[in-house]
Specification:
single chain, 17 helices, Cytochrome P450, about 525 residues, 4-stranded mixed sheet
Length: about 525
């Protein structure tokens, strides 16, 4: 009896040893061993990589990726983030595993500002999101929507008219371009311009939302959840006030649209008109919605919150990027007079100096489009594109757990020395005939140039936005000679970026225009 326990202990130890060895051998043989996380800085207990939060900009993350590789892992508190910084890693995420990364991350403040992800940008991938994207691509931003495209041409005319008032003197071009972009978006969304008290009220709301989106996209509460109750950054109070203001304004706009309904395909119909066909939270609207939505081949049903959140998506996503691309391209050309001359010579040859540029001329201006592509490469409108893992996923032999935030560093990819020759040089000719990138496009099929993303979450308004960019640039460069103010040398032009979702210029671009046409510029 005394020998039973020692013998049992020996047998138990042998059994456990055998199980451990079996598990180890099986894991190696059948691949059951968990894959490693992507490489990154050492994760400290409790706080993770909190000391790297100052590097969470596109430039800071590019420096970290240069050290750790194209797939970088960071963890701050409870939040894991993977940064993608090479074309091949971007392809694996956005093409090979497109569905697994089809979600967007949304902090608690973002979820509140979007009425519980009631918009298209932050809605989880699924039936509602698919129907919303279909509505945006085929109805709200379609080339067939005449009102939106007419707004582009009207507002570009106004931009040129405003610039002409400053002939021979300094004009704040950045401010004028931003106002043009704001008016295009306002007209497309609500059928109004940035004029009068109503417009001023709404623009103030949009500006507050835009600032809140930036400061609340990654807050301390994301990393340490209990901090949210303290509202140390004062964000909660501002969010409640901003959403209340938006509620009042858009409810009033919806009521006005309902009181004076327009056919969805009317020449002057705006986005609210387009979405009201799917509204279900108004008394007596069920029959109308059922009929209209069936006519559009959709089962989509919208509430007022969906409309409010989507309008804010359009205002924030439509205004900043268009203005930013135009301002950066003009900056690059002012810094390189030879490139400026080449673009303007093309315009003079194709269009002549006896008339204004028309929309039909744009397809005949390949070098202008090369300059636009090069600007999208070095100054992408969204330098960090955000995705979220909807499920556990394997990318390049690394484990990406469910709910991990994935940042596509478009800025770093556009300056990858292995993907681009002379990546830091502004050289539009690389996209021209005989250039290394002659066949490269920015619509998402080439993973070393992703200014608008790729796959399911690519920008639905890209076509309309780029038409506005090309039209405005063609008119500005065709209609005027440009120089820097006060005899400034091109190399002295400030090219610093401001922190923000679109990385605009830190200082608005100012320049001196002089008309170059033999006809009126407008």
């Amino acid at each position: 009896m005394e020998a039973w326990w020692p013998q049992c202990g020996v047998h138990l130890a042998l059994l456990l040893t055998g199980l451990i060895l079996y598990r180890a051998i099986s894991s190696r043989r059948y691949g059951l061993r968990p894959l490693p996380l992507p490489p990154g800085p050492r994760v400290l207990p409790f706080v993770g990589n909190i000391f790297y939060t100052r590097d969470m900009t596109h430039q800071g993350l590019a420096r970290l990726s240069a050290r750790y590789g194209g797939l970088l892992h960071l963890r701050v508190g409870r939040l894991s983030t993977v940064v993608v910084s090479t074309p091949e890693m971007a392809r694996l995420v956005l093409q090979v595993n497109d569905r697994a990364f089809a979600n967007r991350p949304a902090s608690a403040p973002i979820a509140y500002l979007t009425y519980g992800r009631a918009d298209m940008v932050f809605a989880q991938y699924g039936p509602f999101w698919r129907e919303m994207r279909k509505l945006c691509v085929h109805k709200l931003f379609s080339h067939r929507r005449a009102a939106s495209w007419a707004a582009v041409h009207d507002e570009v005319d106004d931009l040129i008219r405003d610039v002409a008032r400053y002939t021979g003197s300094v004009v704040n071009l950045g401010e004028l371009v931003f106002n043009m972009s704001m008016n295009i978006t306002l007209r497309a969304a609500l059928g109004m311009r940035n004029e009068g008290e109503d417009a001023a009220e709404f623009v103030a709301i949009v500006q507050e939302f835009a600032e809140l989106f930036v400061v609340s996209n990654s807050t301390l509460a994301d990393y340490v959840p209990w901090v949210a109750r303290l509202d140390l950054q004062g964000i909660n109070r501002r969010m409640v006030a901003a959403r209340g203001a938006l509620d009042r304004f858009i409810d009033r706009a919806i009521d006005e649209h309902l009181a004076h309904p327009k056919p969805v395909d009317a020449a002057d119909a705006d986005m609210v008109d387009g979405m009201l066909a799917f509204l279900v939270d108004m008394p007596g609207s069920a029959d109308r919605v059922s009929t209209d939505s069936s006519a559009h081949g959709s089962t989509l049903r919208l509430t007022r919150d969906n409309i409010k959140a989507t309008i804010m998506d359009v205002m924030i996503g439509g205004t900043g990027p268009v203005a930013m691309i135009i301002e950066w391209l003009m900056s690059e050309l002012l810094r390189d007079p030879e490139e400026m001359k080449r673009v303007q010579n093309e315009l003079a040859v194709v269009v002549g100096l006896h008339r204004q540029v028309a929309a039909g001329d744009l397809d005949e201006l390949p070098y202008l489009r090369c300059a636009v592509k090069e600007t999208l490469r070095v100054h992408p409108p969204g330098p960090l594109l955000q995705h979220e893992a909807a499920e556990d996923c394997d990318v390049a032999g690394c484990r990406i757990p469910k709910n991990t935030r994935v940042l596509i560093n478009v800025w770093a990819i556009g300056r990858d020395a292995e993907a681009w020759k002379d990546p830091d040089a502004f050289r539009p000719s690389r996209f021209g005939p005989g250039g290394h990138e002659a066949d490269t496009d920015y619509r998402g099929g080439h993973f070393h140039l992703l200014p608008f993303g790729s796959g399911r979450r690519s920008c639905p308004a890209m076509q309309l936005g780029m038409h506005a960019v090309e039209m405005a640039l063609a008119r500005l460069l065709h209609g005027f000679e440009w120089s820097l103010p006060n005899g400034m040398a091109p190399e002295d032009l400030d090219m610093e970026e401001a922190y923000g979702a679109t990385a605009p210029r830190a200082v608005r671009l100012c320049a001196v225009p002089v008309p170059r046409l033999s006809c009126p510029v407008v």
